[in-house]
Amino acid sequence: MTTRLPKRCVKCDPINGQVHIEGQETRIEGQQESFKSADIVFIVEEKQCNKIKSERLSILANVLDTSLNAKGLRNNRYALVGFGGNGVHNVVHTHTLQMQLFGDAFKFGRAARNLDFTADGDNEELMKAVNFAAKYPFRAGVRKIVILMPCSKCQHQRMNYAELRQVLDERDITLHLMMENVFRLRSISKPYNIYGMDANSVYTSKDIKQNPLRGNPQLYSQTYKPKDICVALALERNGSVFNSLKLTQGRRDEQKYFIDVLSRRIALTTDAPSCQICECLSDSVGGGRSVCRDCSLQKYTPFSQLLPSTAHLLGYRGENPMVRYPEGDFGIDFEEYFGQQVQVQVNQN
Prior knowledge:
Elements: E1 25-29, E2 38-45, H1 57-70, E3 77-83, E4 93-95, H2 105-112, H3 126-133, E5 143-149, H4 161-170, E6 173-179, E7 194-197, E8 202-204, H5 229-236, E9 241-243, H6 252-268, E10 275-282, E11 288-294, E12 311-312, E13 315-316, E14 330-332, H7 334-337, E15 344-346
Parallel strand pairs: 2-3, 2-5, 5-6, 6-9
Antiparallel strand pairs: 1-10, 3-4, 7-8, 7-9, 10-11, 12-13, 14-15
Helix pairs in contact: 1-2, 1-6, 3-4
């Protein structure tokens, strides 16, 4: 028989000096200094394709921290999630930063060295890994970012696209992708060294001196978009998709240029939230956790259905016992998606 603590016994961390209990909501308005910060979770698929790239994660975190500081975001925290590797590294799991889930950029860099690329595992569930990261204990009132670095394609996923989109929306999380994708142009003969793109612009090596960063909107319609479910999620959540091959290709200075543009693009849409509503919820072990959404978003699903479940020896398993994952193929017509028409078909059998 399972019992749970009374709501009055479940307390979340104080917000503006006020402790709130399970079920209470707190509205955070204005840009107070304590909320001018960001929590960033990197998700790395621990397969061979990311072995060399992972050596650049320490530099990326430090450059990103500098870019966020330039936006007025201080005391930023970083976390690391892995999956798809050998043995216990196959299931989605946490890599701690000196026994903590979050730490500064320096501690993150040290933790990234412990990623295991001994052999490829069979786990290719990218969407479940993002869902797992979205359930991290983010601080109330700060900006939340998830950065996914996959090897696999984000196709034929067990998790429903609409479910994950709802999780990201309700938790006000921005998703960015660093994937192996060479961006190609449709008809322009002039060569461009394309780094990545978002929903409005394309970013190239020419943007290294661009301040403020705005990319090249004129190239957007001429650039082929990756046909990938996670790309669709990232672009809908005000994120971006960048070619991770650039982390290791070319000379060192070229790699630094790429990291600089990537970091500034992530920071570009990372402003301190102007208004959030934070609800105190009980997690799977009875602890209190604040889950915050943008004030403009109405709560259309109980947050309690979106919390993590059973423990795993490296962290938490990513499964959500409240959700039935369809076993069938998940299809989306990306050409229609990028034309603002989305068609989703899920096999419910």
